Amino acid sequence: MISDNIKRLQEQINKTCEECGRSSNDLTLVAVSKFFGIESIQQAKESGINNFGENRAQELALKFEKIGDSVIWHFIGTLQKNKVKYAVRCAKFIHSIDSLDLLLEVNKKAESIGKIQKVLFEVKTSYEDTKSGIESEEEVFRLAEESKKLNNIEVIGLMTISPLTEDEKLIRKSFSYLRNLREKLIKSGYTFRELSMGMTSDFKIAIEEGSTILRIGSAIFGQRDYKKDWRQI
Ligand SMILES: *Cc1c(COP(=O)(O)O)cnc(C)c1O
Questions:
Q1: If you take atom 12 of ligand 1, which residue's CA is the nearest one?
Q2: Which among 7, 171, 172, 186 could disulfide-bond with 162, CB atoms 3.0 to 4.6 Å apart, if both were Cys?
Q3: 2-221 placed in CATH 3.20.20.10
């Protein structure tokens, strides 16, 4: 049951917060509903969840059409330029800005609908080849500087995906890297508040390392059926 899962998860989050002296009020839980249908989202909503994350732009658009902005949508996936319009129309937050090109396109589409788009920069914090994200600190600083010139962009923080490993030390290293990078940015005058990090397998470490936004899917909705077509949801 989704409601039981949420209850259990929230207890675990609260416990971890207590153990490391943080307030769970400083944490936003985003329920990652990709591959799950409207009914599952409604159930989570009834259990008090109001932030949802999607990683495919058209799937987000379809769900947005049905549920609208009675919940807050987060776009967390790789974003192709030709899909930016969906993400900007539906998502209050886009977590996955990883290039200047993409940032400019988001600014353009946001401008065309008169919106200030809140975004996070996705940073690569592990050596895995498959992981997306900005690869160097210099590039993060360059994008931060460029975004000052863009009237329809507000950068609110950084996002990362930890390496796929059982090695807790490597996961922790990836999260602390992101936190330290945010400190450097803050010292340089950028007001980046949010750290979007932590999924089902590593959210406890993420909380300990200062996460402010958790993106959790399977602990809430169960196993995903990756064969499922987004048009069928
Ligand atoms: C799917 C996904 C998540 C959630 O993953 P779970 O392991 O199911 O919690 C978080 N972040 C991103 C970017 C995702 O694509």
A1: 76
A2: 171
A3: yes
DSSP one-letter code for 71: S
Strands (DSSP E) along 42-143, which ranges? 51-54, 72-75, 93-97, 117-122
| Ligand 1 close to Cβ of residue 161 (< 6 A) | yes
* C-beta 33 within 6 A of ligand 1: no
Q: How far is the CA of 30 from the centre of ligand 1 (A)?
A: 10
Q: Can you give the pTM of this predicted structure?
A: 0.96
Domain boundaries of the chain, sorted by first residue: 2-221
Element (H, E) at 106: helix 100-112
Index of the ligand 1 atom closest to the CA of residue 215: 10
pLDDT tens digit sequence for 101-151: 999 999 999 999 999 999 999 999 988 766 789 999 999 999 999 999 999
